[in-house]
């Protein structure tokens, strides 16, 4: 996650742990949530297009940064909400691993349609502390993320658990292979083919740990109702994490507004 240039130590402080058993509940307070746009505008934009790629597209198309970024970001609505939940989860997990390095393929950069979610498992992150040597300390984290920012019939906690079970059965392996295909085709700037192969062809390496997580990112006003009757899955199967964010819809929209203007019209990437 280094290329996002987020101070992960400081970012991790935003999340206050309310409970850790039988599932993890963390919350961001209202003041910190209101400051997310200032903190995450540029990092969120970089989740869709890096600085170098943005400059290259500006030169080749003779277009403004604003136009190129706008062609990458989702419109307001369910896809934007879902993408934000995934990015927040990815950063939350990276902050928890700090100062260890987390490798993230940035699936949001690989979308064929900006109006739809990226295919496969939501968040896949590799931890390879001794790379280029593989070791039994290697880990891969696969998180299924559901976001609920407004009232409605969706059940983010139950849905996250259910879809995380799909990850641990087949979808996670398919996602790794899809990422490898993208790495071979267009290239991935943050994860290599060899790093993906370490987990795809796991029998050729020391035993690694696979961690499955079901994550629900929920607007604070809705959390209490959504947690009613929740039964956490067995901890040895998958972790359940609930992230409470005040005024989630307003705050994630502010983050994306900041992402859209994260490079000025003169062409300087900021």
From TrEMBL:
The Anti-bacteriophage protein A/HamA C-terminal domain, residue ranges: 23-258
A Pfam short name: HamA
Official protein name in the record: SAVED domain-containing protein
């Amino acid at each position: 996650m280094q290329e996002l240039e987020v101070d992960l130590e400081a970012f991790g402080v935003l999340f206050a742990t309310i409970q850790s058993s039988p599932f993890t509940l963390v919350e961001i307070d209202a003041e910190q949530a209101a400051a997310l746009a200032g903190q995450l505008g540029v990092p969120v934009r970089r989740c869709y297009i890096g600085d170098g790629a943005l400059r290259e597209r500006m030169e080749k198309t003779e277009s403004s940064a604003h136009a190129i970024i706008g062609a990458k970001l989702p419109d307001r609505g369910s896809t934007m909400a879902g993408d934000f939940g995934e990015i927040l989860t990815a950063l939350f997990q990276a902050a928890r691993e700090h100062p260890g390095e987390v490798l993230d393929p940035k699936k949001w950069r690989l979308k064929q349609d900006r109006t739809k979610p990226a295919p496969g498992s939501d968040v896949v992150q590799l931890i390879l502390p001794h790379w280029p040597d593989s070791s039994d300390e290697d880990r891969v984290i696969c998180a299924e993320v559901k976001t609920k920012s407004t009232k409605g019939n969706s059940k983010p906690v139950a849905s996250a658990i259910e879809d995380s079970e799909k990850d641990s059965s087949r979808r996670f392996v398919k996602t790794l292979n899809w990422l490898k295909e993208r790495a071979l085709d267009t290239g991935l700037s943050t994860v290599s083919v060899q790093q993906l192969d370490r987990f795809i062809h796991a029998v050729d390496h020391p035993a690694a740990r696979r961690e499955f997580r079901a994550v629900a990112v929920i607007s604070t006003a809705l959390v209490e109702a959504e947690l009613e009757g929740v039964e956490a899955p067995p901890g040895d199967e998958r972790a359940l994490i609930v992230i409470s964010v005040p005024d989630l819809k307003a705050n994630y929209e502010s983050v994306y507004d900041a992402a859209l203007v994260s490079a000025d019209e003169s062409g300087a990437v900021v």
